[in-house]
Amino acid sequence: YEGIIIVRNGGTHGAVSVRWNITRNSTDRTPVSADLNPVSGTLRFAEGQMNAVLPLNITQDNLPEEAEAFILRLIPESVQGGAEVDEPME
């Protein structure tokens, strides 16, 4: 697993960054970090860069589990460099 690819639309002029976080899409109270890491960070695009990979490490365990759903959220108010987060931001 290589990570989640985030695509920058609307041009690639200038460097931009945005913070992100991952939460569970369920009532499960187990910390997200029990299943994957990191659970938050900053995604950076260099001038001219259209795609960036958000690397995630999935925790391998021997517990039988059903499929689990997570929400990746780009945080609009954290954008640096004059870009905008468009819908959907999750």
UniProtKB/TrEMBL annotation:
Gene3D superfamilies per the UniProt record, alphabetical: 2.60.40.2030
Record InterPro entries: ADGRV1 (IPR026919), CalX-like_sf (IPR038081)
Superkingdom: Eukaryota
Transmembrane segments: none
Ranges in a coiled coil: none
Full protein name: Calx-beta domain-containing protein
Source organism of the structure: Cirrhinus mrigala (Mrigala)
Lineage: Eukaryota, Metazoa, Chordata, Craniata, Vertebrata
